[in-house]
């Protein structure tokens, strides 16, 4: 299986006053297309920083990031924004839905950056909502939905452009256990049946069991990379 992601000697440092804080140090990682990877480790270990770099939300201090044959670390800000819009779907802990918009309109938002007609945007949003089991909630606003339903709307928004890569930052961190399991089962479905490559930051060992591999980071370095045994 070919790699969707290849990173080499990846480093990221931030300036805090006169102090340089290195968050990631000379990291190497391959992620095959169709993988489902859970990123774990203590707070400050570099998990979210790595996720943001791989999703094109931030740029590295050193090293290279190749996603689908594209060196994203070399792209201009404008080219990177265009790449993100078509290639990456984002799922966050707190949903980030627009409260004044319906579920349908929230899901359509990424498509406003495309040349699709209003009718085509609506059609694609409806398909995405049906895939996450919320076809009957299309006209509901976020305040009329449960936390689990809001997260499923955010997943529909993430997949509406049919990206190859989904990046998830604590996607179940604000959910009760039942809602969390429903969201994790949905991510497994997207990985297994729709071929999405998924990178998920989580502190929850139970959530990590839904992935195919678990990557442990500590102090900006990869300390273990293990397969998950599934029954």
Automatic annotation (TrEMBL):
Pfam families named among the record's database cross-references: ABC_tran
InterPro entries hit by this protein: AAA+_ATPase, ABC_transporter-like_ATP-bd, ABC_transporter-like_CS, ABC_transpr_LolD-like, MacB-like_ATP-bd, P-loop_NTPase
SUPFAM superfamilies: P-loop containing nucleoside triphosphate hydrolases
GO MF, one annotated term: ATP binding
Entries under Gene3D superfamilies matching the protein: P-loop containing nucleotide triphosphate hydrolases (3.40.50.300)
Organism superkingdom: Bacteria
Residue ranges of every copy of the ABC transporter domain listed in the record: 5-231
Keywords carried by this UniProt record: ATP-binding, Cell membrane, Membrane, Nucleotide-binding, Transport
Name of the protein in question: ABC transporter ATP-binding protein
């Amino acid at each position: 299986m070919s790699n969707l992601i290849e990173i080499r000697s990846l480093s990221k440092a931030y300036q805090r006053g006169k102090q340089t804080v290195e968050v990631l140090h000379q990291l190497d990682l391959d992620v095959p297309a169709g993988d489902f990877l859970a990123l774990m480790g203590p707070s400050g270990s570099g998990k979210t920083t790595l996720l943001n770099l791989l999703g094109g939300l931030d740029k590295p201090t050193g090293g290279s990031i190749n996603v689908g044959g594209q060196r994203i670390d070399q792209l201009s800000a404008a080219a990177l924004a265009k790449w993100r819009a078509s290639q990456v779907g984002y799922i966050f802990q707190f949903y980030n839905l627009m409260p004044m918009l319906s579920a349908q309109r929230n899901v359509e938002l990424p498509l406003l950056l495309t040349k699709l007609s209003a009718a085509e945007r609506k059609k694609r949003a409806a398909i995405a909502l049906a895939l996450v089991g919320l076809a009957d909630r299309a006209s509901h606003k976020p305040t009329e939905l449960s936390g689990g339903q809001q997260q499923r709307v955010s997943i529909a928004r993430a997949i509406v452009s049919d990206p190859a890569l989904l990046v998830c930052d604590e996607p179940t961190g604000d959910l009760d256990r039942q809602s969390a399991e429903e969201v994790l089962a949905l991510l497994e479905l997207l990985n297994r049946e729709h071929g999405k490559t998924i990178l998920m930051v989580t502190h929850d060992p139970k959530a990590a069991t839904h992935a195919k591999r678990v990557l442990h980071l500590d102090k900006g370095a990869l300390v273990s990379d293990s397969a998950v045994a599934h029954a």
